[in-house]
Amino acid sequence: HAGPAITREDFVPHAEYNEKMDFFYLHEATDYVFSLIRQVDQEMTEKKPFLSIKHEEEYWREQARQVIWDLAYKIGVIGVHLQALMPETSERILDAVIKNKKPTNLFARKD
């Protein structure tokens, strides 16, 4: 991402998540967040931007940069959603996205 620096305020929580939290439906809110995590994981698996970024043609590298940016934004939103549920994990996610650094694995992968 070559644009302006991103901040926590740039990540807007989803209305559906906010509604669940407003009514203290914590189990549903948690399910919602983990469904977002699964969606991002699936998108990353299907689009494979970390392979395309190494392509010799600039077009494919630019496509990969856009996919990576979109995924990073979605991960930032997930980080915001996790603030009330998993504050330390939320902080690690937001810090990594804002600083454009890869954190250590936050969730064990279930294969």
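Second entry:
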Amino acid sequence: RGFIVRYRPSGGGQSEWMMSPLKDISLSGTSFLSERPFPSGTKLQLRLGLPTSQRPVVVEGVVVRQRRSGWEGLVELGVTFCDLEPSTRHQIQQALVHATEKASEGRPHG
């Protein structure tokens, strides 16, 4: 199971959740491809699907970067997390460790 994000503008009421695989994630933020552009400064609600968590990890983030991707109709968003709770930070850290271990399993030793 990989890293997935569901996202929508914060305070968007009943706006529809969009979904994308994560391109990158760290303890400070994430990047992913979006069908819809969001200007820098836009607050997003994020539901992170992590391979080490049964339920999505819910965080708020702010768009800090938007650029064209190599895919038609998609933009790459860079999002910084806002005020992560210690438990949320721990869940993301566990997922990062898990992903690093999985990646190293596939590498030849020697």
